[in-house]
Amino acid sequence: MLEIKQLTKTYTTNTIFKALDLTVADGEVLSIVGPSGIGKTTLIKILAGLETADTGDVTLNGEKLAVDGTRSDAKVGLIFQDFNLFPNYKVLDNIMLAPINVNKVAPDVAKAKATELLETLGMADKGDLYPYQLSGGQKQRVAIARALAMDPQILAYDEPTSGLDEASTKQVAEVVKTLKAQGVTQMIITHDQPFAEMVSDRVFDFATEVKR
């Protein structure tokens, strides 16, 4: 379970959000909706250790996570809006890179897991392709596989359907549902209300629920 208590973030004199309380149950799919610029992406970056908070506590499965930017673990896997795949690496190598270099996983073990993830996400035949050879929906699935390869306790998506066509959006929705069936806890930042309603157990409206 993810528990966020009294989390506050400011930039100079601008308060992004104040005293935020939010709980996400194990295996839950929570979508966070709201207009641009109100702090949705900032929140998941704090959870992933890429941004700092001013005050507040975050607990994941009973373990308190640092919110001051000192954390270097991968308990929260962040899937970026623009995928951030390495264009000079094949799909399989993109997924294997962090487990090998960060978690010091043996290459054969990392390859076996990457291959299994691609099979799970319907990408078994794409491992030897480069990112430029993939559609937007396929790139999104590779980004999800790459995050999962680090064994996160929760997945956080930043606008996963941005720029995708209807068919690719449906593919991403099926991946979210597949991971939910496997018990993966997921947080989704999105402007896509129909997508949020399609995949989520609960929708959190950042504009109305969060103090500023």
UniProtKB/TrEMBL annotation:
Keyword Nucleotide-binding: yes
Gene3D superfamilies: P-loop containing nucleotide triphosphate hydrolases (3.40.50.300)
Keyword hit for Coiled coil: no
InterPro entries with a match to the protein in the record: AAA+_ATPase, ABC_transporter-like_ATP-bd, ABC_transporter-like_CS, MetN_ABC_transporter-like, P-loop_NTPase
Record keywords, A-Z: ATP-binding, Nucleotide-binding, Transport
Domain named ABC transporter: residues: 2-210
GO function terms (MF aspect): ATP binding
Segments traversing the membrane: none
Coiled-coil intervals, chain numbering: none
Pfam assignment, any one: ABC_tran
SMART domains: AAA
Similarity-based family: Belongs to the ABC transporter superfamily.
Protein name in UniProt: Amino acid ABC transporter ATP-binding protein
